[in-house]
């Protein structure tokens, strides 16, 4: 099948490469010329495990190509997939301006005898109806509209494409749905057919529920700290109930990234437009905002005054195996620490360049995790990279000036902390206090 993907960002690139891998002829279009040139050379502009190898394989086979030219992308396409960004506006609603621009260009350049226009971008319910009118802005065509939301996790997107829980196809016509089912059938993933509106809603509802689960266990963790319980034991007991399940019951410093924050805010906005007060989801968002700065609040309570202190921070991306720092807890923490007058040294295996583009010289960038630990008066863990989880607390203690660790992802066990000369604070578990503090240089 001849397929075009408009937008070679995270979703579009992974989607196009995976469709090419199962035998389709795919053209990915992006307006960024530098990005397209990089992709033509087989290199990905995003960090995603396995994507470079897949790009090289599919481009060399001739199944995947890249362009900045709409006529080239649209001329022979039987299916055109829209995968452009729909960022949040200040009020939480989705900005559809890029989507509208793309739809109008497709309408002008695509064949007019019935190509299927598939929306992969996350869009508010009712958007696909608008897309039909945008397609016909310049000239009328017999376009067929469908919604095919993505459920990819950053860091495991290729695996998820071939091993997903479901593929949702929302379409008006049975023929359209059947054609799209044929397109994705080689993935071997269960397929659900729905209306267009239901498909749009499934995406938002799924992310909102997962965000709710995260905020719930974090609130339980906060209560566990006050009651002397261990949230890991609580979560394990909860997760053994098949009605609940263990996924997304890991207490920490909240969710981030490009999906959960944007989609929860958009769903609240959509509810407001329908005069529905989504109190539950509003609470989820509020809880998450507090949780992201929890470690800094712990440090302020521990030290009373943070001014002039030195802190190391491990992990900048919102989760491991990605360089995405959008809505990452680390960024909230860094800004708060800087406001308190703390000298901050940061380290992340892949996300540091993205942080440099935002914070510049306001923080110190370490070349190795040990450099971010050595001689610090406090240490924060914001992302559970495997590189950090294999460290030993005794090693961390020896490197630090004052061995005080605030672990936002519960990377270490309480038992190990008890055997190390380190004050250890984690989420939803008893703090381990040794009060074996080395004398600061400043004293």
UniProtKB/TrEMBL annotation:
Protein's GO biological process: polysaccharide biosynthetic process; UDP-glucuronate biosynthetic process
Enzyme Commission (EC) number: 1.1.1.22
InterPro entries associated with the record: 6-PGluconate_DH-like_C_sf (IPR008927), NAD(P)-bd_dom_sf (IPR036291), UDP-Glc/GDP-Man (IPR017476), UDP-Glc/GDP-Man_DH_C (IPR014027), UDP-Glc/GDP-Man_DH_C_sf (IPR036220), UDP-Glc/GDP-Man_DH_dimer (IPR014026), UDP-Glc/GDP-Man_DH_N (IPR001732), UDPglc_DH_bac (IPR028357)
Pathway membership, UniProt: Nucleotide-sugar biosynthesis; UDP-alpha-D-glucuronate biosynthesis; UDP-alpha-D-glucuronate from UDP-alpha-D-glucose: step 1/1
Record key words, sorted: NAD, Oxidoreductase
Catalytic reaction list: UDP-alpha-D-glucose + 2 NAD(+) + H2O = UDP-alpha-D-glucuronate + 2 NADH + 3 H(+)
Listed Pfam families: UDPG_MGDP_dh, UDPG_MGDP_dh_C, UDPG_MGDP_dh_N
Binding site for NAD(+): 30, 35, 86, 122, 154, 262, 326
Residue stretches making up the UDP-glucose/GDP-mannose dehydrogenase C-terminal domain: 312-414
Gene3D superfamilies: Cytochrome c1, transmembrane anchor, C-terminal, NAD(P)-binding Rossmann-like Domain
Active site feature: 259
Sequence positions that bind substrate: 151-154, 203, 248-252, 256, 319
GO molecular function, one term: NAD binding
SMART domains: UDPG_MGDP_dh_C (SM00984)
PANTHER family, alphabetized: UDP-GLUCOSE 6-DEHYDROGENASE TUAD (PTHR43750), UDP-GLUCOSE 6-DEHYDROGENASE YWQF (PTHR43750:SF4)
Annotated family: Belongs to the UDP-glucose/GDP-mannose dehydrogenase family.
NCBIfam families associated with the record: NDP-sugDHase (TIGR03026)
Protein name: UDP-glucose 6-dehydrogenase
Taxon lineage: Bacteria, Bacillati, Bacillota, Bacilli, Bacillales
């Amino acid at each position: 099948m001849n397929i075009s993907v408009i937008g070679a960002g995270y979703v579009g690139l992974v989607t196009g490469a995976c469709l090419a891998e199962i035998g389709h002829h795919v053209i990915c279009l992006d307006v960024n010329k530098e990005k397209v040139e990089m992709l033509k050379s087989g290199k990905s502009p995003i960090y995603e495990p396995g994507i470079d190898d897949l790009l090289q394989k599919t481009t060399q086979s001739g199944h995947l190509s890249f362009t900045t030219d709409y006529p080239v992308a649209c001329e022979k396409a039987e299916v055109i997939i829209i995968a452009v960004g729909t960022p949040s506006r200040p009020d939480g609603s989705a900005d559809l301006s890029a989507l509208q621009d793309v739809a109008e260009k497709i309408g002008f350049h695509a064949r007019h005898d019935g190509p299927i226009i598939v929306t992969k971008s996350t869009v508010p319910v009712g958007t696909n109806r608008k897309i039909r009118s945008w397609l016909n802005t310049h000239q009328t065509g017999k376009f067929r509209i469908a919604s095919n939301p993505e459920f990819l996790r950053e860091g495991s997107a290729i695996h998820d494409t071939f091993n997903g829980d479901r593929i949702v196809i929302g379409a008006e016509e049975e023929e359209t749905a059947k054609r799209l089912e044929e397109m994705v059938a080689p993935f071997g993933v269960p397929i659900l057919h729905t209306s267009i509106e239901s498909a749009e809603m499934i995406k938002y509802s799924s992310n909102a529920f997962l965000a709710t689960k995260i905020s719930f266990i974090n609130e339980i963790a906060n209560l566990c700290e006050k009651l002397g319980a261990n949230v890991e034991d609580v979560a394990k007991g909860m997760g053994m109930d098949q009605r609940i399940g263990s996924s997304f019951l890991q207490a920490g410093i909240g969710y981030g990234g490009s999906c959960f924050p944007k989609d929860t805010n958009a769903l609240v906005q959509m509810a407001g437009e329908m005069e529905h007060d989504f109190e539950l989801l509003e609470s989820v968002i509020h809880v998450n905002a507090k949780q992201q700065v929890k470690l800094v609040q712990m440090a302020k309570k521990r030290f009373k005054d943070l001014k002039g202190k030195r802190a190391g921070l491990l992990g900048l991306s919102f989760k491991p195996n990605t360089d995405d720092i959008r809505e990452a807890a680390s960024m909230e923490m860094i800004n708060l620490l800087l406001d308190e007058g703390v000298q901050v040294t940061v380290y992340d295996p892949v996300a540091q360049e993205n942080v440099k583009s935002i914070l510049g010289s306001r923080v110190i960038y370490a070349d190795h995790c040990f450099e971010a630990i050595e001689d610090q008066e406090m240490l924060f863990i914001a992302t559970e990279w495997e590189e950090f989880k294999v460290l030993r607390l005794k090693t961390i203690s020896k490197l630090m000036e004052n061995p005080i660790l605030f672990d936002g992802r519960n990377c270490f066990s309480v038992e190990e902390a008890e055997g190390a000369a380190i004050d250890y604070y984690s989420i939803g578990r008893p703090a381990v206090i040794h009060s074996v503090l080395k004398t600061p240089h400043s004293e």
